[in-house]
Target: Ig-like domain-containing protein
Amino acid sequence: MRARLWLLLAAQLAALHGSLALVQTPASLMVQTNQTVMLSCKINTSPSNTRIYWLRLRQALSASSHYEFLAYWESTRKTVHGKEVDKEKLTVLGNSPQNVLKLQSVKPADSGVYFCMIIGMPNLIFGTGTQLSVVDVLPTSPQPTQKTSPKKKVCRSPKPVTREREFSHSSGFSETQPTLFLPLSLPSFRKLFPSVDSSLFL
Model:
């Protein structure tokens, strides 16, 4: 129930702050074990020196779920990692408005939803998220079976008959998730992000 209320509040705040957005690409990605993954986060209408943080959510949002702080890009052109993060495996490239999280030699344990985030006043602003799935073997789509039908005799009419064919075109539908805005005090921030050292955000 709390998670549902949190999402509702975040969506409402996103509507009020639509001018600022964090757009992540791709929206979802499935790769094989030991591949290299590049996740992008772009900021619009924000100062160029804005620091972008990267977080991971391993499971669906619930009362017991929490974000893992992974890393952020420091102005001295280095990646600042979170605790228990493999520094050889994870790096952040570039600075705002474009940030890229690079993951090398990914494993199934790296699967989850990856979020970029910036600290606004007084809101934490989350990106749209990227769902990463790491598998040992990529699924294969079944080949369509072709049915052969017996040939039919065509009776020719004395006059040529033309038929108009109707073509239907269905346009694709793109669904995007809104940017999430979450107002938090420091105590509630620590409750939501137990694995994050809050001093990194000051």
User: Anything to note?
Assistant: DSSP finds two helices and twelve strands in the chain. The chain has one domain: 2-137+177-201. Residues 2-16 form the longest helix (15 residues). Residues 2-137+177-201 form a domain with the Immunoglobulin-like fold (CATH 2.60.40.10).
